[in-house]
Amino acid sequence: MQTTLKNNFDSTSASVLMINAQGIMLSVCGQDYFLSYNRLPWMQDAPIRSVLNVRMSGSDAIVWPDLDVDLEIESLRHPERYPLVIKRNALDSVER
């Protein structure tokens, strides 16, 4: 599935090119990016239909609305600047 956001200057789009056992290949604004499941583990077990439903969110981000996942395009260009961090707080776990 491809979505396109048109403005007066150019056209920007996001689409899934490939899904395999290692990750997802995306085309965003004319550039291709491979998203490894090691980097985005929550995408590994996502339904294919939901992964294919990727859209532009403004001019600087993409979103998977079915999965409640959004990424800045800058994080695709420079993943080393955006380490995967899980923050824990009192609401993350419930004691029995």
Salient structural properties:
96 residues; mainly beta; NE0471 N-terminal domain-like; three-stranded antiparallel beta sheet; 10% helix; globular; disordered N terminus
Structural account:
The protein has helices at residues 48-52, 73-77; strands at 2-6, 11-19, 23-28, 31-36, 55-56, 61-64, 69-72. It is globular. 10% of the residues lie in helices and 38% in strands. It is mainly beta and 96 residues long. A 4-stranded antiparallel sheet has the order 1-2-3-4. A 3-stranded antiparallel sheet has the order 5-6-7.
What is the helical fraction, as a range of percent?
A: 10-25%
Strand order of the main beta sheet, please?
A: 1-2-3-4
**CATH class, anyone?**
Alpha Beta
Shape: globular
> Element order, helices and strands?
EEEEHEEEH
Residues in β-strands, percent: 35-45%
CA(first)-CA(last) distance: 44 Å
Mean pLDDT across residues: 81
What is the name of the CATH architecture?
2-Layer Sandwich
User: Helices and strands: which structural class?
Assistant: mainly beta
Question: Which spans have pLDDT < 50 for at least 5 consecutive residues?
Answer: 1-11
Count of the separate structural domains = 1
Per the CATH scheme, the topology name is NE0471 N-terminal domain-like
Short synopsis of the structure:
The chain has 96 residues and is mostly beta strands. The protein has helices at residues 48-52, 73-77; strands at residues 2-6, 11-19, 23-28, 31-36, 55-56, 61-64, 69-72.
Blueprint (SSEs and pairs):
Elements: E1 2-6, E2 11-19, E3 23-28, E4 31-36, H1 48-52, E5 55-56, E6 61-64, E7 69-72, H2 73-77
Antiparallel strand pairs: 1-2, 2-3, 3-4, 5-6, 6-7
